[in-house]
Amino acid sequence: GGDIARTELNGELVLWVEQRRGGSAWAVTDQRAVLLNDDLQEQASFRFDGLPLAQFTGSADGHLVLVLGSYDQDKQVTVCALSPQLELLAQVEVPFQVRAVQADGQRFYLCGPDSIRLYQYDGTEELELPLPQAQDIQLAGGYLYYMTNQELGQVALGNLAAYRPQESSSQPEGESASG
């Protein structure tokens, strides 16, 4: 006993390692995301294909969301949402600077210069919250907190319908006139 488990990541800069439930661990390097078992044997990996890693976040249930590319160079970045097994669930090209990214079991959240956008894990944009000057977002206790230079605000994730633009139609969606 007492042996130190090791894994070789030759030429890679390890940016983040986190233990997961059940003994496995994630590692994020400057080139890829790696899933390791409790003996640090590589189980799966997702390569960045030479794109620079701008930001990333992990959710409590094991999703990983990566922001790849350089907005300054390309005027867009690529957001990759990965399953707990590091399978690519969605790849979304976003034409704005991502200031912050968060993720939970249901969706991922991108903070841009003039709004916060909520995406499902299949890449569908679920909601856009116009928020000029949003600098950062954090998830806690069923709320999405956002920070601007002037204020701290919160969005109740259990009541997202309240934040959707109100439809001008007189009937609720999905109901027919015949009743």
* Quaternary organization: single chain
Distance between the termini: 70 Å
Strand content: over 45%
Which residues form runs of ≥5 with pLDDT under 50? Answer: none
Q: Helical segment tally?
A: 1
**Rough shape?**
globular
The gyration radius over C-alpha positions equals: 19 Å
Widest beta sheet: strand line-up: 1-2-3-4
- Overall mean pLDDT stands at 88
What do you see in this structure?
The protein has one helix at residues 71-74; strands at residues 14-19, 25-29, 32-36, 42-47, 53-58, 64-68, 77-82, 88-94, 100-103, 107-111, 115-120, 125-130, 136-140, 143-147, 152-156. With 179 residues, the chain is mostly beta strands. The strands form four sheets. It has a four-stranded antiparallel sheet with strand order 1-2-3-4, with no helix packed on it. A four-stranded antiparallel sheet has the order 5-6-7-8, with no helix packed on it. The mean pLDDT is 88.
Structural descriptors:
four-stranded antiparallel beta sheet; mainly beta; 179 residues; 15 strands
Give the helix/strand layout.
Layout (H helix, E strand, L loop, with lengths): L13 E6 L5 E5 L2 E5 L5 E6 L5 E6 L5 E5 L2 H4 L2 E6 L5 E7 L5 E4 L3 E5 L3 E6 L4 E6 L5 E5 L2 E5 L4 E5 L23
Antiparallel strand pairs: 1-2, 2-3, 3-4, 5-6, 6-7, 7-8, 9-10, 10-11, 11-12, 13-14, 14-15
Quick synopsis:
With 179 residues, this protein is mainly β. It has one helix and 15 strands, in the order ββββββαβββββββββ.
